[in-house]
């Protein structure tokens, strides 16, 4: 039989087993016996590799082929610890993670010897500083959220914990974040999985997210229950209600939690049975048109006792958001806030195509929402939140300049409680006990320590934001405007923020005379309807109005 080099390791194991066994018997030597046992096990493994039909590589490379699977399994760790550069974003750079870790631990977060950024490359952005900087002593930056129809406005921090459900996060992670929010005076979004006992235990302010599964406020058939919602929403710990239309990680996609993964605590929080798969449908059943959506928002506000009610979405069809705005005008019912999630959001496990290719990035989505509300004359009544890879004071300052009133972050607070970006969130094998329901794994996360880190990270980030605002000559970061930023669009060119992310004129969508430079906005506004999300017509090529066509 012809011997192939790929079988060399397997043959060596076979021969070593034979010789080691002979020597162990002949000399009664324990070391030879141990060697025989090890190589015998490898020989058996090789035989099984040759006989199995699942993996071609093991049939061709018995024994040694397992090295390929071993190296593949630890590839993320090898890259993260040995190969990755400080600014390689996959999905967060080492530099960004280190900044969160340092601020959460309260250790030195300064760095020597100048920037490592390529300040002449396309995409680089910077803040224009003032010759008359200001020292801001109070960095507990807050805004009031609540429109004309809200009777219980909320004095919110401008940097809160974004939506992450109990079930996706461990009990200890939820409790650490909520306790930290209580210590630091900011809010935690519950995520769509309902309000768990661990959200309540910490005593921190909560934003109750109501998604298409209506967890915590649903009937047995999965439909919305007004009675259960009112019971939840009127809890004093609940400060705002967030209707989730979509999320950046997987916009337009539902989900399923298999019955095997539903624990008694998850069932309690979601209000679901344990022996049935839990379905989160892609769309809401409580409404199907823009007008019905606004009426539902009004209903939620009434049921909650007048608390701020808004919605969260990742922008998809821009016309559909304009449909919602037209419904606000038609019904007179306006949300108190809108949270714009960028497609770069990512705590939710998602199909690769959705994570990579569906939804609008946050900066473009935020600018569109902000300017649409300005164009409809509604911006003054509606607050805007933004979410999507916001980890530093610069990230916060930039989105505030582009139209946001406050920011949410999920993964930054995950880093604050110890996330190492192992990207094993969906496996239930999180190495630091954050994204797992394995009690033995989650006990590694000590709530008393990590809650302090959460509060410290928030405080130090707000202090850094105050320093940035002061350097720009401002007294509050909410005063940042696009012109405070410069954006390098090409390696040799840069533009003022007003040129790249301009604020469009108030009321221009409702004005009798159109602005020629904004014809695309006017055309899209004309196609939008308060009665339906469906397009009145599908434009092929550039859209032309009937008046223009004539």
TrEMBL record:
Q: Which domain of life is it from?
A: Bacteria
Q: Which residues form the Glutamate synthase domain?
A: 160-474
Pfam families for the chain: Glu_synthase (PF01645)
* Keyword terms, alphabetized: Membrane, Transmembrane, Transmembrane helix
What SUPFAM superfamilies does the annotation carry?
Answer: FMN-linked oxidoreductases (SSF51395)
The UniProt entry, under InterPro entries, shows:
Aldolase_TIM, GltB, Glu_synthdom, YerD
Q: Which residues cross the membrane?
A: 7-25, 31-50
Q: Which Gene3D superfamilies match?
A: Aldolase class I
> Which family does the record assign?
Belongs to the glutamate synthase family.
Q: What protein name does the entry list?
A: FMN-binding glutamate synthase family protein
Q: What is the lineage of its organism?
A: Bacteria, Pseudomonadati, Pseudomonadota, Alphaproteobacteria, Rhodobacterales
């Amino acid at each position: 039989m012809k011997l192939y080099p790929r079988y060399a390791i397997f043959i060596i194991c076979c021969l070593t087993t034979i010789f080691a066994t002979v020597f162990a018997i002949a000399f009664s030597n324990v070391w030879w016996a141990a060697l025989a046992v090890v190589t015998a096990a490898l020989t058996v493994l090789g035989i099984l590799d040759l006989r199995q039909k699942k993996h071609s590589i093991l049939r061709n490379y018995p024994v040694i082929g397992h090295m390929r699977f071993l190296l593949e399994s630890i590839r993320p760790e090898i890259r993260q610890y040995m190969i990755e550069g400080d600014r390689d974003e996959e999905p967060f750079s080492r530099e960004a993670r280190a900044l969160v870790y340092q601020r959460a631990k309260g250790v030195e977060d300064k760095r020597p010897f100048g920037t490592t950024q390529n300040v002449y490359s396309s995409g680089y952005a910077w803040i224009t500083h003032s010759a008359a900087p200001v020292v801001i002593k109070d960095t507990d930056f807050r805004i009031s959220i609540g429109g004309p129809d809200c009777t219980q406005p909320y004095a919110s921090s401008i940097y809160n914990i974004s939506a992450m459900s109990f079930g996706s996060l461990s009990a200890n992670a939820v409790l650490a974040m909520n306790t930290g929010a209580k210590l630091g005076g900011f809010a935690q979004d519950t995520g769509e999985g309902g309000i768990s006992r661990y959200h309540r235990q910490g005593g921190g302010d909560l934003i109750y997210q109501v998604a298409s599964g209506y967890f915590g406020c649903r009937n047995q058939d999965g439909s919305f229950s007004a009675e259960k919602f009112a019971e939840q929403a009127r809890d004093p710990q609940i400060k705002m209600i967030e209707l989730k239309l979509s999320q950046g990680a997987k916009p337009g996609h539902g989900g399923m939690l298999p019955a095997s993964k539903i624990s008694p605590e998850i069932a309690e929080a979601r209000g679901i049975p344990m022996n049935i798969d839990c379905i989160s449908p892609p769309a809401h059943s409580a409404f199907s048109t823009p007008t019905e959506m606004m009426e539902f928002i009004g209903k939620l506000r009434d049921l909650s006792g007048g608390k701020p009610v808004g919605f969260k979405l990742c922008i998809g069809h821009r016309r559909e958001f304009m449909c919602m705005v037209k419904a606000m005008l038609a019904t007179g019912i306006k949300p108190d806030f809108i949270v714009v999630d960028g497609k770069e959001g990512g705590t939710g496990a998602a199909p690769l195509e959705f994570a990579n290719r569906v939804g609008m990035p946050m900066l473009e989505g935020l600018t569109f929402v902000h300017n649409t509300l300005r164009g409809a004359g509604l911006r003054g009544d509606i607050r805007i939140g933004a979410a999507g890879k916001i980890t530093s004071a610069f990230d916060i300052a930039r989105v505030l300049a582009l139209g946001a009133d406050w920011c949410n972050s999920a993964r930054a607070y995950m880093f604050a409680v110890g996330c190492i970006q192992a990207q094993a969130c969906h496996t239930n094998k999180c190495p630091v006990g954050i994204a797992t329901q394995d009690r033995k794994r989650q006990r590694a996360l000590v709530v008393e320590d990590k809650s302090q880190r959460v509060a410290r990270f928030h405080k130090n980030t707000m202090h850094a934001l105050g320093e940035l605002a002061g350097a720009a000559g401002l007294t509050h970061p909410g005063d940042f405007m696009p012109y405070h930023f410069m954006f390098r669009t090409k390696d040799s060119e840069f533009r003022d923020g007003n040129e790249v992310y301009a604020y469009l004129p108030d009321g221009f969508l409702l004005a009798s005379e159109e602005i020629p430079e904004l014809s695309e906005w006017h055309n899209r506004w004309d196609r939008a309807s308060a009665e339906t999300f469906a397009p009145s017509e599908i434009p092929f090529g550039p859209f032309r109005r009937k008046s223009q066509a004539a």
